[in-house]
Amino acid sequence: MSEAASLLLSVRGEARRVVAPDHAQVDVTISVSRRSKPDAARAAAEGLDGLTADLAALGAVALEAGTSRHPLTWSAQSMTTYAERAHDQSTGQYQPTGQVIAAVAVVVAVRAFELLDALGAALTDRESVTVQGVTWHVDWDNPAWQLVRADAVQAAIGKGRDYAAAVGGTLRTVEHIADAGLLGGDASQFAFTGRRVVARAASRGGPEPDAPSLDPAPQELAAVIEARFTADGVSVSSSSL
What is the pTM of this model? Predict the structure, then answer.
């Protein structure tokens, strides 16, 4: 004997899209060595002034609340000083050289990708500058987010229909749609991942390399949602209860 019944279905929907990045973050360090801490700090500040002048020639402005989406911005994050040490082959230890190193961390954000080649050349032209790395990012309001989230919802609906059909029923209503984890699952959320590109400037006394490679890296957007549906017409066998 069997009867038609209703059933609550809980599923997860996932979707991915590969899109072009909106901006790049270039992490830069200005590092100088001098006999004293004040001299090192002064030289690092002069190096920062020189670098920002080069960036201004490319149209860069300082990062502020109103310039976050300017084509090219820069911001000085911090300055640190520490005793320079060199490897002593006789002892195997790193011993102070008597010099002090001052380092300034600078972040350059690029939205006008046509400036990337000129930016790379400007960074490698300065001996005290090292490009620590380049990361690519997609804005939170990029229209592709809406598309990939809609894809995830459709994937959940398709999965729910498959489950309902497997027991002879059809989907009737949507009970819940939520970010992953909000309906009692794990804490997975909408996310995006990107390939990290690392470039370095010439070391002192070393050969001059070409400008760093700053080719935009495609970004993968991944949306994960959870959904609950009510299915009608489910065939339930009394012998299986």
Answer: 0.78
Question: In the structure encoding, which two tokens stand for residue 160, read together?
Answer: 């729910």
The predicted-structure confidence for 176-210, as pLDDT tens digits, reads as follows 999 988 877 555 444 434 333 333 333 333 444 44
41/82 same-domain check: yes
Same domain, residue pair 150 and 120:
no
Neighbours of 122 (CB within 10 A): 20
Q: Which domain holds residue 60?
A: 23-86+96-137
Q: Are the C-beta atoms of residues 20 and 218 closer than 8 Å to each other?
A: yes
188 and 230 co-located in one domain: yes
Q: pLDDT tens digits, residue range 79-93?
A: 999 999 988 888 888
